[in-house]
Specification:
The chain is an alpha+beta fold and 204 residues long. 44% of the residues lie in helices and 19% in strands.
Length: 204
């Protein structure tokens, strides 16, 4: 149900208390429907979280067992695994990616890169400018694209300032954690294509 105050009045979107008798039946019906769907969605989200934790736990146990069978205590953390069933028609894939952020040195690197582009302005390739500017674009949350930033280091540019900027980017990298991705695939027979089961587990 909607949020209520001590007198039982419903609180609207502006924070104003409204006596129940003044609320349109359509508003009441809509509110009840929305509340029901959100409750079900929250329950489903919790089930998905538990399912993901269960799958990751089972895979971890299997990998630990496999390592012990081969004289190791455990497999090194991280990495990607593809586990296929005996018949070859079912498989589970897991990717464990590092969560990378950049510290304040990224801004120093950006300044050096800007200086390079300014120096090269007469002869700089417009495509290179586009690559650099695109790499440093931020999303709605103010985050940069990690892959694009790190991808700048692959450019073979022999300029001391540019090289110094690339070194700063490397030094600015901070690993803040890991993120696990699961994928489940099946196929009808050996000749069929793999079909991915659509479960959005990345965000839970």
């Amino acid at each position: 149900m909607a949020t209520k105050d001590k007198q039982g009045r419903w609180i609207d979107a502006s924070g104003n208390p409204v006596p129940v008798k003044y609320i349109d039946p359509v508003e009441k019906k809509r509110d009840a429907m929305v509340e029901k769907q959100i409750r079900q969605a929250l329950l489903m989200q919790e089930r998905i979280k538990k399912f993901k934790a269960s799958v990751l736990g089972d895979i971890a146990k299997y990998l630990d067992w496999l390592a012990q069978q081969n004289g190791e205590q455990s497999l090194s953390p991280g990495g990607n695994y593809q586990l296929t069933g005996f018949s070859g028609s079912k498989r589970v894939m897991i990717k464990i990616n590092k969560v990378i952020e950049f510290d304040e040195r990224l801004q120093l690197a950006k300044q050096k890169i800007d200086d390079c582009l300014e120096r090269w302005s007469q002869g700089a390739n417009d495509n290179l400018k586009a690559v650099v500017f695109d790499a440093f674009k931020v999303d709605r949350k103010g985050n940069v694209d990690t892959k694009r930033i790190l991808g700048l280091r692959k450019l073979k540019i022999r300029d001391k300032a540019w090289i110094a900027a690339m070194e700063l980017i490397t030094e600015a990298v901070t690993v803040t954690g890991t993120r696990s991705y699961l994928m489940f695939q099946v196929k009808a027979d050996k000749e069929a294509e793999w079909e991915t089961l659509r479960l959005d587990l990345a965000g839970v």
